[in-house]
Design goal:
The chain has five helices and ten strands. With 197 residues, it is α+β, with helices and mostly antiparallel strands. The strands form two sheets. An eight-stranded antiparallel β-sheet has the order 3-4-5-6-10-9-8-7. It has a two-stranded antiparallel sheet with strand order 1-2.
Length: 197
């Protein structure tokens, strides 16, 4: 009798786990798989890492500025970097990247906010709009951060974004409504998941 009950309980547990796993989105499965891998990616860009202090962020930006690699971005809200134009010398293909750290309560980097746009963007030039830039930036991000491909994810507000997860690092990419910028957010999932609990 006990053996029968144990078999039924085991079977019920297996069915429950199967249903629970099947209900998870592909995104949730990927996050769980990557976070359970134990792989940690700390490097973000320009030698900056998750956990670096706000002071280190500013010091690094000053070093890059002295080397004339970056400049002050619009409204002094971002640091600006012009991507090298490797395909051709056509200035219409020149891309600017703005970046700025997002800091936790201890003033350490928990994420990096990036915005990409064509330097020659104008509202009437649709082939310079953000939606046309998305595939170029996806390709660039995949070269900078190899690993898993991007997947489309629908957020709670029904907007669609492209997401790439490797170990603890999540990269979210989407065109902004202003038609100019492609936004990219590089986050440390260890911090993001801890803050949602």
């Amino acid at each position: 009798m006990k053996s029968n009950n144990l078999k039924q309980l085991s079977l019920l547990s297996l069915v429950f786990l199967t249903v629970l796993t099947a209900c998870q989105s592909d995104y949730t499965k990927l996050v769980n798989k990557e976070m359970n891998s134990g792989i940690v990616y700390d490097s973000i860009l320009f030698g900056l890492k998750f956990g670096d202090s706000r002071n280190k962020f500013f010091e690094r930006c000053m070093e890059l500025n002295k080397k004339k690699l970056v400049s002050q971005g619009p409204n002094n809200n971002y640091v600006q970097y012009r991507l090298p134009n490797t395909k051709d010398e056509n200035t219409l293909n020149t891309i600017d990247m703005l970046f700025y750290g997002k800091f936790d309560e201890k003033s350490n980097i928990k994420a990096m906010d990036l915005k990409f746009n064509y330097a020659s963007w104008s509202p009437w030039n649709e082939n310079q709009h953000a939606i046309a830039l998305v595939p170029v930036i996806m390709d660039t991000i995949l070269k900078w951060y190899p690993g898993n491909e991007f997947m489309e994810v629908t957020k709670k507000d029904e907007t669609k974004v492209m997401v790439k997860v490797d170990g603890n690092r999540q990269i979210t990419l989407f065109p902004e409504e202003n038609t100019k910028d492609v936004s990219v957010l590089i986050e440390d999932l260890r911090i993001k998941i801890k803050n949602t609990k």
